[in-house]
Amino acid sequence: FPFRLFPLREHGMNWRAKPLTCQEIQAFKKSKEVMQRLIRAYQLMLRFYGIILINEETGELKRAENWAERFQNLNRFSHNNLRITRILKCLGEMGYENYQVHLVKFFLTETLVKETLPNVKRSALDYFLFTIRSKQKRRELVHYAWQHFKPRGSFVWGPHDKLLKYR
Prior knowledge:
Blueprint lengths: L21 H9 L1 H18 L1 E3 L7 E3 L3 H10 L2 H15 L3 H17 L7 H8 L6 H14 L11 H6 L2
Antiparallel strand pairs: 1-2
Helix pairs in contact: 4-5, 4-6, 5-6, 5-7
């Protein structure tokens, strides 16, 4: 059967790939080999996007040396945004929520602060942010996005009155 690099409990673009079951997810999480392969696949995709995983414990990321060239690819081809959303969802399913947070924050920083990925901005705000499982971490990231969004009055991903009071 067709194998998925980042399997989910939902159908993707490949109609032949079967969605994961909860039992399969639990079995994957118990397998050291499967989890190591997931991290290797994640690192492979990050390198393709011009990003390096610098800490496997925390999920901390940084730009790769070839980031400028790879970011051009990210800006040019929007299908990458679907793959990134899938990777984020898979990381959440497999218990790597900290990896999710670092990847979303990386994209928010690159799109809103450094403005290197203008064509990824909508996906980062509309999709990447909302893959975060932890309500608290998601709120922190929405607040971070709001702080850096221009013009702030056009920010539609959270109520402004609550964002103003957020601590």
